Amino acid sequence: MTVRAASSADLPVLQDIERAAGEPFRIFGMPEIADDEPPALDLLERFQKAGHAWVAEDGTGRLVAYLIGEPLDGAFHIEQVSVHPDAAHQGVGRTLISYAAARARRLGLAGLSLTTFAEVPWNAPYYERLGFRVLAEPELTPGLRRIRVAEAEHGLDRWRRVCMYLPVAPPGRHA
Q1: Domains of the chain and CATH, by start
Q2: pLDDT category, 169, cuts 50, 70, 90?
Q3: What's the Cα-to-Cα distance from 114 to each of 8, 64, 175, rounded to whole Å?
Q4: Using CA atoms, how far apart are residues 22 and 38, in angstroms rounded to an integer?
């Protein structure tokens, strides 16, 4: 598997990955999430042009996952990480998150943040296994609070959501 910066030509494929990655939410009783549209091409392009969109290719060069995010309140906020179901349980998500952590270190950021569903096995429980912890309400930064408001406006609060954080060490030091 190879991780690299996303190109403009990759962006429609990222939408396909997102659609496929949403399908398992149906069996978890969340068809609205499965039916949600993937990020628009202009949004994906914004992350790509900023240098904050990465893809994972399998051994054949096929794109199987992506991660987008941006600096937010001293951390690198993972906006979305999606793995095609055909590549699930192969360490692809973990590899992309490790890549994002290394980039955050190089940018001088203190950690990674994200928001996710609390009870979906491949969401919060997965991130906890990677070392993320759930932030208590008083720990939320202004940016994370804004994201949570936007998520609620989008209807995501129908299911319990949490903000999570993983500290990353600066270059040359271990977390």
Answers
A1: 2-167 (3.40.630.30)
A2: confident
A3: 24, 21, 18
A4: 9
CB 110 within 8 A of CB 117: no
Element (H, E) at 115: strand 111-117
**pLDDT tens for each residue of 10-38:** 999 999 999 999 999 999 899 999 999 99
* Tokens 């271990």 sit on residue: 174
- Name every residue whose Cβ is closer than 8 Å to that of residue 159 and which is 6 or more positions away in sequence: 30, 117, 118, 119, 120
Crossing angle of the two packed helices 11-22 and 41-49, in degrees rounded to 10: 120
Q: Which residues, at least 6 apart from 166, have a Cβ–Cβ distance to it below 8 Å?
A: 97, 101, 111, 112, 113, 127, 130, 131, 132, 133
